[in-house]
UniProtKB/TrEMBL annotation:
PANTHER family: BIFUNCTIONAL COENZYME A SYNTHASE-RELATED, DEPHOSPHO-COA KINASE-RELATED. Pfam families: CTP_transf_like. It comes from Physcomitrium patens (Spreading-leaved earth moss). One of its GO terms (biological process) is coenzyme A biosynthetic process. This is Cytidyltransferase-like domain-containing protein.
């Protein structure tokens, strides 16, 4: 089971994060829960689509955008029902993170810190305020160090289909 570090609740008015969010798994839950807990009013979630998916393993098995959007919205609302959840399809690594002036923080994992830094460079170029980069550590309580990923889940699906 993945857990997150202790965070300060309601620290920011609006928080952003991005990803593919295919087959929501515990790693996604940790990131989305952190974003929900950090936000007072709004969470903006960029959900990869189009060209952003072309290099993904088993890309043809990625759930439709509407399915992924709904799963993200339902999960965040289960954590904090009063939040406004804004899901945006993104076709580049930045999406709304570099155009929304009201954003205050970006939630990233250790693997995506560079993406958060890149967002801040683009925001600076556009004259927007820098986002606080909130890094969520994916710790596994059961000692399992295997990284859970949507690609692994899609691969398992393919293997099960071939066996069955």
């Amino acid at each position: 089971m993945a857990t997150m570090n202790v965070i300060q609740p309601n620290k920011y008015s609006a928080v952003v994060l991005g990803g593919t969010f295919d087959r929501l798994h515990p790693g996604h839950h940790v990131l989305l829960k952190a974003a929900a807990e950090l936000a007072r009013e709004r969470v903006v979630v960029g959900i990869s689509t189009g060209q952003m998916l072309s290099n993904k393993e088993y890309a043809h098995l990625i759930q439709p955008l509407d399915v992924r959007r709904q799963a993200v919205e339902v999960f965040i609302k289960s954590v904090k029902p009063e939040l406004k959840v804004q899901t945006e399809p993104i076709t580049d690594p930045y999406g709304p993170s570099i155009v929304d002036p009201e954003l205050e923080a970006i939630v990233v994992s250790k693997e995506t810190i560079k993406g958060g830094e890149s967002v801040n460079k683009k925001r600076a170029e556009r004259g927007l305020s820098q986002l606080q980069v909130e890094v969520v550590d994916l710790l596994f309580e059961d000692g399992n160090t295997e990284k859970i990923s949507s690609a692994i889940l899609r691969e398992r699906e393919v293997k099960q289909t071939k066996v069955g």
